[in-house]
Amino acid sequence: MKNPLAILITIVACSISIPILISIVSYDGIEATASVKEQTIEEIKPTLESRDKVKEIINYETINKKSPTISVYNHNIGKNQQLDMEEYLCGVLAGEMSAEFNLEALKAQAVAARTFVMYKEGKGKQSKHKNAIVCTDFRHCQEYKSYDELKKKNGEEWMKNSYSKIQQAVQETKGHIIVYNDEPILTLYFSTSSGKTENSEEVFSAAYPYLKSVDSPYDKDYSPKYVSTLKITNQDFVKAFNSAYSDIQLSENDLNSQIEILDRSDGGSVEIIKIGNKKIKGTDVRQILSLNSANFDIEFKEDYLDIVIKGYGHGVGMSQWGAEGMAEEGYQYYEILSHYYTGTKIKDLY
Length: 350
Ligand SMILES: [Zn+2]
Known about the structure:
The model is unreliable at 16-46 (pLDDT under 50). By secondary structure, the protein is of the alpha+beta class.
C-alpha cells in the first residue's frame, strides 16, 4: 500500500469502524432486538386502538370437541367432497397465504377462513355449489388445495417444512371463529392495503358494522405490492374506455382537462371519477384497466399516463400483508383480527 491517500483512507475507516464493532459486540443481541421492537410497538400504539397490553397472551382454547365434517364443492372436478373442517382449512391456508408468513399472521388467516365457512353455513345451502357450504374457487369462496395437490406442486421438502407450519397455525386455533353479537362474521380479506382499509359499503353495496375503515400502518413497509404503476398511452386509455362505454365522449388530446377525481372513500380509494362526459366508479376503472386496487392517482405526461396505485385487492376487512406486519411487530393473531374486524370477539366452537 504505497499510495498515501489509500493509507489515509484506511486509517480513517479503521478509526470509525472499530468503536462501532466494539459497541455491537458488547451489546446483548437479544435484548437489543427486543427493545427495538418495544419501541416500535409504542410508536404505533395510538393508531391501533384495539391493543391494550403489549405482551398479554390470551388462551381461547376452552372446548375440545371433534371438528365437524363439511361439504365442499370442488370446482375443479365438479363434485362435492366431505372434508374434515381442520384438514380443509390447511388446504385453504396453503392457497390463500404464503407459509413464509409469520405464524401469528397464518393463525389470523386460519381463523378468518374457518369463520368464513361458519358464516356461509349460517346462510344456508348454496345453489351455486350443488348445496355444498363452500366451493374451492377463490373468485367465489376460498382457494383450496388438497394435500396431494400441494405435495405434487411443492414437493416433499415443502410439505415437511412449510405445510407443517400451516398445520400448526390451524391446530393452534382449532375451533376458533370471529363473532359479532355472537354470530360468525363475513370475514373478507385481501392482499395489501393503501395504509387504510375500506368501509364495505363504499366498495360493495352492503354495510357491515365490523367491516369498517381502519388504519393499516405496516403494509407500506412489509408488502412488496404496496405501490404499482400502470403506464398507458393516451391512445390505449381512450380505446379502453371507448370499448367499455360506447357513448363516452373522450379524446386523446388534452386528457388532463377531461379527467377529474370527484370523490374518494374514507380509505382513500377513488369513489367517483369524471372521464370525458361520464361519471365512473373507481371500482369500474379498476376492472377496465386491471388495476391492483381502486386507490389510484393519475399523472399526465406528454402522450401517456402514469397511473400510480396503492394497495392490492378490494381493501375490505383484513389486509394479509398488514396482518403480517402486525405479527412481525409482536401482535397476537386475536389482536390482528380484532383490529381489522371492528367490535368482534373470538369464540371457541370446538
Ligand atoms: Zn363458492
